[in-house]
C-alpha cells in the first residue's frame, strides 16, 4: 500500500510539474511608441558602434539624428523618407538609405510594431517581453521593458543590435 501511494504521489507531482511548465503564449503588451531617447547601434560583423538620438512622435514621425554629424537627420513621415541637413531637405517615396542601415531597420521595426502585423510575443520573463517579426533586412527580435513598456533593444539577427537608453515619453 505504501508503495502504491508513493507511485501515485510521484505521478501526480510529475503531471503538475509538466502542466505548469507548458509552452503558454507570452503576455502580449503594447510598447510605448511615442518617445525620445538615445540609441547605440552595433554591427555584429564589424563591432562598429553608431550613436544617435531617436524621436518617435505621436503622429508616427520618426527622426534619427546621428551624434557624429550634427544637423543631419533621417526622417520617416507619412510614408515619405526624408533626409535633412540644416535647411536642406531631400524627400523620396522609397528608402534611400542603404539596406544594412540601422536607421532603416528602426523605421521598419517601429512601423511593423505600430501596425501590429505579423509580430508575435515569443518570450517573456519578469523584466522583458520579446517580440519577433521580419523586415527587409531579415528577422528581428524586439525587447520591451515589462514595467515601463519602453523598447530596450532591437536585434536584427546576425546583422545588428540597437540598444535604447534614456527614453522619455512624449
Could you walk me through the main structural features you see in this protein, from its secondary elements to its overall organization?
It is a single chain. The protein is an alpha+beta fold. It has one domain: Clam (outer membrane lipoprotein receptor (LolB), chain A), CATH 2.50.20. The protein is 19% helix and 45% strand. The chain contains 2 helices and 11 strands. The protein has helices spanning 2-20, 102-115, and strands at residues 35-43, 49-56, 62-66, 72-77, 80-85, 88-92, 120-124, 128-135, 138-145, 151-156, 160-169. It has an 11-stranded antiparallel sheet with strand order 6-5-4-3-2-1-11-10-9-8-7.
Structure in a nutshell:
The protein has about 170 residues and is of the alpha+beta class.
Number of strands: 11
* CATH third-tier fold name: outer membrane lipoprotein receptor (LolB), chain A
Q: What order do the helices and strands follow?
A: HEEEEEEHEEEEE
Please give the share of residues in helix.
Answer: 10-25%
What would you call the shape? Answer: globular
User: Going by CATH, what is the homologous superfamily?
Assistant: Lipoprotein localisation LolA/LolB/LppX
Number of discrete helical segments: 2
Q: Could you describe the largest sheet, including whether it forms a barrel?
A: 11 strands, antiparallel
Q: What's the CATH architecture?
A: Clam
Compute the number of structural domains. 1
Q: Would you tell me the structural class of the helices and strands?
A: alpha+beta
CATH class: Mainly Beta
Give start-end ranges of low-pLDDT stretches: 17-24
Report the mean per-residue pLDDT as an integer.
84
